[in-house]
DNA sequence: TTGTATGCGTTATCAT
DNA sequence: ATGATAACGCATACAA
């Protein structure tokens, strides 16, 4: 048989009408047990699989769109994995588009999603305005790990996370605590929130924020570490009055800091403490052993999928769109230690 | 307007028949320029997007299925990114399913792909027999980075890769070169091919393969490193007569070896040289600096997508299904060094 | 060149 | 409880 069997083939094979087959497929209770069995056997015999495309012409699609700028980002890859897993549990499929850094390409990929009439779109990275306008109000939008004004965002409490980081460092006796976020693609709002948490943490600890301890110039969004990022970092770390501890806006940045520090002979944690953010898998490797702020990825995934399928009200109690923030968790490893004693 | 506009809405708005709209959409040259413009304007005005599901009932689907067991595996994530990018360039979308380690779940995810009538399925991980049988002959199957008998497989030349690794180590004066592959999920055939390349490399170098220098017990497939994997590794590395150099079947295994060696105080590369396989992103980090065998991921992605869209004959000259193997590349970093002088 | 009619596989409505 | 039939949105063969 060249082409896959249709519901009609099943019906005629089972000697019933296609309506009955459909009823069996839909799990309707009104169908007689003997007929149900005949249909089930026919399906099995013919290897029939319902055509999802045809089905979605009459029913709500069970496909969820995921848009991410860079799957190579371990945090995104891990989050996407959890999302797919939970979506599958809820009988939904994932149409994945990765947009890369080019804005036009982004629109084209998002357009593809709307043409597929996905039930909802989940954004792991902030889309451009153009791309966002494409999607229209009939398709549900949920933002994960990033913040989008006027839209439902589900994320870790970024500010609380960096506050936690500062608190941890302050408890270790650090006074000169810096913050670096530059040039590694992430949502600007997220960066801002994490910086805010850092500021807040400093205030609570009774510490002052010095401009010289900050590295925040924002480069191209959604981009790989630029070749000269290491140089910038080295210059920052090479300063006479450099911080004794650093809060990195993401683990990826922390990884770069480690490289720069190594190159400069600055020992971590002996003479520089470092806290990351995200707790990507490699952070736990013995060579890295990064103290970091872990995101509750499974909860994030569950909530975002629920919101995508059931609507915002299913996860947000009040009047959506309201954002919901989950608590972060400090994971202490070996990149942080007691502040060096004053020389 | 509650529901998205259809081709009929566009037609009536433009004052033409739906056929003309369709013709414009299909890029037919036969349509009058003035009508084409009217249609295009109407589309723009209404924000019309063709319904892909409905379209695919008459045309070949432009959705490609990707099945992977674990997106957390950096090699898979990177490969998937390239695949999506090239598929997009060819105007196709990616329906992604991640199967995890459970076999039944695997079938369910693959079933979902066939119900969506994807144009082709691309396997980044070896599926179980059950899952494979589900998919039937009308859906094209391509295997990437793994080997499947009787099917089109596109992969790096695994044997050549590990041979390269051995050659590199032998050139550095190593005699006792081991091979470890145990317990980190991968296709058994791939493991076998890489081991074969190791053996061949040893033979060419005039070196003998000793059983004691091998760690190949295969644990659960498709699984995360088990908790006691470190223990096994430490025991292996702690032996009196351990190899002075190791070929790891994948970078992920190499990462584990590094941890174990560190824990034992075995210095890399001074007293143990190590070569990985895949060249995942983290391998280039200064703390890891892993000498490894790089796969031509972009070429892999391009070929597999072409094969998925155009059929096996588009990439394989002869009579498909034939497998095609791409040459690997040795990337030398700092995990390999001259063999320690005999004591 | 443009419009009309039909089919694609499924669900949903409505008689029976 | 079951079956006939009308949508669903689009492409295509054919007629005009």
TrEMBL record, chains A, B:
Would you say which domain of life the source belongs to? Bacteria
Instruction: Give a GO molecular function annotation for the protein.
Output: DNA-binding transcription factor activity
Cite the Pfam families for this sequence.
LacI, Peripla_BP_3
| Entry keyword annotation includes Chloroplast | no
SMART domains for the chain: HTH_LACI
Q: Which UniProt keyword terms apply here?
A: DNA-binding, Transcription, Transcription regulation
Please tell me whether the keyword Transcription regulation is annotated for this protein. Answer: yes
Q: Where is the HTH lacI-type domain?
A: 5-59
User: Which InterPro entries does its entry note?
Assistant: HTH_LacI, LacI/GalR-like_sensor, Lambda_DNA-bd_dom_sf, Peripla_BP_I
Q: What is this protein called?
A: HTH lacI-type domain-containing protein
């Amino acid at each position: 048989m060249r082409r896959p069997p249709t519901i009609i083939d099943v019906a005629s094979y089972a000697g019933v009408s296609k309506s009955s087959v459909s009823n069996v497929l839909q799990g309707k209770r009104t169908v007689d047990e003997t007929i149900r069995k005949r249909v089930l056997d026919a399906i099995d015999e013919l290897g029939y699989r319902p055509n999802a495309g045809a089905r979605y012409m009459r029913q709500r699609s069970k496909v969820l769109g995921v848009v991410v700028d860079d799957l190579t980002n371990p945090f995104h890859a891990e989050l996407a994995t959890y999302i797919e897993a939970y979506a599958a549990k809820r009988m939904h499929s994932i149409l994945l588009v990765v947009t890369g850094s080019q804005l036009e390409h982004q629109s084209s990929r998002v357009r593809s999603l709307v043409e597929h009439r996905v039930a909802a779109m989940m954004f792991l990275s902030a889309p451009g305005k153009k791309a966002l306008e494409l999607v229209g109000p009939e398709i549900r939008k949920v933002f994960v790990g990033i913040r989008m004004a006027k839209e439902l965002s589900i994320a870790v409490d970024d500010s609380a996370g960096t506050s936690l980081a500062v608190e941890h460092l302050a408890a270790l006796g650090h006074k000169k605590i810096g913050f670096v976020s530059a040039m590694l693609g992430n949502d600007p709002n997220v960066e801002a929130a994490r910086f805010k948490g850092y500021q807040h943490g400093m205030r609570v600890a009774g510490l002052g924020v010095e401009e010289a301890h900050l590295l925040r110039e924002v480069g191209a969004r959604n981009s790989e570490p630029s070749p000269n990022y290491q140089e910038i970092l080295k210059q920052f770390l090479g300063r006479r009055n450099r911080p004794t501890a650093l809060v990195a806006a993401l683990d990826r940045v922390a990884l770069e800091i480690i490289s720069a520090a190594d190159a400069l002979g600055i020992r971590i944690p002996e003479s520089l403490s470092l806290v990351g953010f995200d707790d990507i898998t490699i952070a736990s490797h013995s060579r890295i052993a990064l103290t970091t702020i872990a995101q509750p990825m499974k909860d994030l995934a569950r909530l975002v999928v629920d919101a995508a399928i059931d609507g915002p009200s299913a996860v947000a109690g009040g009047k959506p769109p309201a954002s919901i923030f989950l608590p972060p968790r400090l994971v202490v490893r070996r990149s942080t230690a007691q502040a060096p004693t004053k020389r």
